[in-house]
Amino acid sequence: MTRKQRRLTLIGGALMVLGIAAALVLNALRDSIVFFSTPSMVAEKHIGPGRRFRLGGLVETGSLKRGDNLAVTFTVADGSAALPVAYKGILPDLFREGQGVVAEGSLDASGVFRADTVLAKHDETYMPKDVADALKKQGHWKDDYGTKPTAQAAPAPTQGAVR
């Protein structure tokens, strides 16, 4: 074997080992990667039973039902579609109807999303106490932090200008 042939064989072998390693890593990650979907995306993609994914949307008002042994059912909607969710466990403190939620699990054969993890999303006005205290201390605190934006009030009538 010439020097050039040995070098090409060594490079080819290294590329083959690298390709096999990459294929093994991607195959292992395929089972642990969890994609995010909304109820309308679930309907469009026709996700089959047993496939794990994250479901996100708003908890429909009036859909929360509590059962025995920490079992709860509720409906997650995104405006155009809704999906029933069943969960057994303690719900997060921020969980409530009309609030954003992300649930991780899979669909069962009857089309119900069986969640094993439920995360409640807070609104954008949330601010941790430590951050609020730091802003107050630095003088950057605004009185409208933590309040939801409302329609602007009409300006108060002004009195005649003094000359």
Number of DSSP strand runs: 7
Q: How many H/I helices?
A: 3
Give the end-to-end Cα distance, rounded to a whole number of Å.
105 Å
Number of domains: 2
CATH top level of the largest domain is Mainly Beta
Name of the CATH superfamily of the largest domain: Nucleic acid-binding proteins
Helix percent reads 25-40%
Which term fits the overall shape? flat
Question: What this model shows, in words?
Answer:
- This protein is of the alpha+beta class and 163 residues long.
- The protein has 2 domains: 1-33; 35-120, OB fold (Dihydrolipoamide Acetyltransferase, E2P) (Beta Barrel).
- The protein is 29% helix and 26% strand.
- It contains 3 helices and 7 strands, in the order H-E-H-E-E-E-E-E-E-H.
- Strands 2-4-5-7-6 form a 5-stranded mixed β-barrel.
- A hairpin with a 4-residue loop joins strand 4 (71-77) and strand 5.
- The longest helix is centred in the first third of the chain and has 30 residues, at 3-32.
- The chain is flat.
- The mean pLDDT is 80.
Outline of the structure:
This protein has 163 residues and is of the alpha+beta class. Helices cover 29% and strands 26% of the residues.
Chain-wise SSE layout:
Blueprint: H1 3-32, E1 35-37, H2 39-45, E2 52-59, E3 65-66, E4 71-77, E5 82-88, E6 100-107, E7 113-120, H3 129-138
Parallel strand pairs: 1-2, 5-7
Antiparallel strand pairs: 2-4, 2-6, 3-4, 4-5, 6-7
Membrane topology: Single-pass type II membrane protein
Cytoplasmic side: 1-7
InterPro entries: CcmE (IPR004329), CcmE-like_sf (IPR036127), NA-bd_OB-fold (IPR012340)
